[in-house]
């Protein structure tokens, strides 16, 4: 410790505060690590309490704002899944880059585009999802013989093909209200920064999400979240909030209902990682600020949750403040090391044994995380030594909250909540290249236009790819092309909105 004598009260408070903070953090991670290694016990549904998978309609919502460079490829991969009980609703939130045109050019009746126009557009992801949910209720929610499951996939999301079946398998249990799948970074081989983000998501899902299955405190992410329509309706007409982290808010509030949130490690969504440190700082500042805004959920968690679920949810809500306090501890440690090294350079005798304990405390958990990551990535050619090196880099990567955390707090204090979206790399449209069917207009035919309703929303079915060529984009093919599938029988459209 720095300054003061051995009996300095300020120093003693700081010392024991640091010990308690480090101890609680290590115990928390260790407990979740241990319980994450065993499968959870979810009650089997009683007689009449299960759903047949074939009766579950899955509607994927894809919120978009100027995503013309990636939306075609993402929707195409979803439509490659031969499933006539799958629907894709793209939410164009006031784009001005032709995003809706790209979607309308896809010749598959299972996809539709909902256009939000001013003054309803660009009010946040939560508002866009709530508007889309109104449409889902009106279009598919009236059939008592069908369970409707609503999924949320980002515009750059590449949902693994088995995810839809895995979601249906989970929702056969009527106690399950929401399911979160894993998240992977598809460009993790292209940069060290993207690799660290992939490692971050893998560790979060493998340790924290899997562990929280036992605590009934699984959280929801912004990508690859699936929720039963009935569970969303239990939160009111607008289940998603205006928070910058509406996904976290949704998970906390769902955990307070009669429904159970589940995590399924059997499928994942692959998304683009940020390859610029500046863009990463901006993205994580937004996330951190959203978590700060979630402090108002503390009372709700205390009232609606019980036992370990309540304790863990409270920890999750307070995590941003714990990280801010930890950043002060790290700064204090850095100053201590600097002083010790300076004294050693000046010839003062120093003891160095404490560096070993400091290394074990700082890098020990990272090494364990590195081994977990290696077990998953070794099939992709990752060796144990490289995984060990990544583990040490990951610990340094974990210091970034000291930068964006305080920036987020400053933005929240000053009332700055507006954000520019994170830019994405353009991709070549693939998939969904089935020949034009009866719904395809003749080349050059006029495209039907839907007039906006009083709320500023337009619903349009997708049209044939021959109506408008896809925009050119730089080729970035991180995932291999799939072999062509045999043509699927036409699926009747669920809705048509006349001009």
UniProtKB/TrEMBL annotation:
InterPro entries: Nucleotide-diphossugar_trans. Residues 471-490 have a biased composition (Pro residues). Residues 429-454 have a biased composition (Low complexity). Residues 424-499 are annotated as: Disordered. SUPFAM superfamilies: Nucleotide-diphospho-sugar transferases. Pfam families: Glyco_tranf_2_3. GO terms for molecular function: glycosyltransferase activity. The chain crosses the membrane at residues 12-35, 56-79, 321-341, 353-376, 388-406. Keywords: Glycosyltransferase, Membrane, Transferase, Transmembrane, Transmembrane helix. Belongs to the glycosyltransferase 2 family. PANTHER family: POLY-BETA-1,6-N-ACETYL-D-GLUCOSAMINE SYNTHASE. This is Glycosyltransferase family 2 protein.
């Amino acid at each position: 410790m720095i300054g003061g004598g051995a009996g300095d009260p300020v120093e003693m408070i700081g010392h024991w505060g640091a010990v308690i903070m480090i101890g609680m953090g290590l115990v928390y991670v260790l407990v979740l690590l241990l319980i994450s290694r065993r499968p959870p016990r979810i009650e089997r549904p009683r007689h009449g309490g299960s759903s047949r998978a074939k009766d579950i309609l899955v509607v994927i919502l894809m919120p978009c704002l100027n995503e013309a460079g990636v939306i075609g490829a993402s929707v195409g991969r979803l439509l490659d899944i031969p499933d006539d009980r799958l629907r894709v609703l793209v939410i164009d939130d006031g784009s001005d880059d032709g995003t809706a045109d790209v979607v309308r050019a896809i010749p598959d009746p299972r996809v539709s585009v909902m256009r939000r126009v001013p003054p309803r557009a660009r009010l946040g992801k939560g508002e866009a999802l709530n508007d889309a949910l109104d449409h889902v209720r009106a279009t598919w929610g009236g059939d008592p013989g069908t369970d409707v499951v609503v999924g949320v996939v980002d515009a750059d999301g590449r949902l693994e093909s088995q995810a839809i079946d895995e979601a249906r398998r989970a929702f056969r249990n009527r106690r399950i209200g929401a399911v979160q799948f894993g998240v992977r970074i598809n460009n993790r081989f292209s940069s060290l920064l993207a690799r660290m983000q992939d490692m971050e998501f893998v560790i979060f899902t493998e340790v924290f999400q899997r562990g929280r299955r036992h605590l009934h405190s699984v959280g929801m992410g912004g990508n690859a979240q699936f929720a039963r329509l009935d569970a969303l309706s239990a939160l009111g007409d607008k289940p998603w909030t205006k928070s910058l982290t509406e996904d976290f808010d949704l998970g906390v509030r769902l955990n307070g209902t009669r429904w159970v949130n589940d995590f399924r490690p059997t499928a994942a969504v692959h998304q683009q990682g940020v390859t610029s440190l500046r863009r990463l700082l901006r993205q994580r500042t937004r996330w951190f600020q959203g978590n700060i805004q979630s402090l108002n959920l503390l009372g709700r968690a205390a009232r609606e949750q019980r036992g370990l679920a309540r304790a863990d949810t409270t920890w999750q809500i307070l995590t941003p403040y714990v990280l801010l306090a930890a950043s002060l501890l790290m700064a204090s440690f850095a100053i201590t090391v600097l002083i010790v090294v300076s004294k050693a350079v000046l010839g003062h005798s120093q003891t160095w044994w404490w560096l070993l304990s400091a290394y074990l405390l700082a890098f020990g958990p990272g090494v364990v995380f590195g081994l977990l990551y290696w077990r998953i990535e070794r099939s992709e050619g990752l060796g144990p030594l490289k995984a060990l090196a990544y583990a040490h880099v990951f610990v340094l990567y974990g210091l970034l909250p000291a930068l964006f955390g305080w920036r987020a707090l400053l933005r929240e204090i000053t009332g700055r909540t507006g954000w520019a979206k994170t830019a994405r790399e353009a991709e070549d449209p693939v998939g969904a290249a089935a020949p034009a069917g009866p719904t395809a207009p003749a080349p050059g035919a006029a495209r039907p236009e839907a007039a906006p309703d009083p709320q500023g929303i337009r619903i349009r079915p997708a049209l044939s790819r021959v109506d408008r060529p896809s925009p050119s984009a730089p080729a970035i093919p991180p995932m291999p092309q799939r072999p062509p599938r045999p043509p699927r029988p036409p699926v009747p459209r669920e809705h048509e909105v006349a001009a």
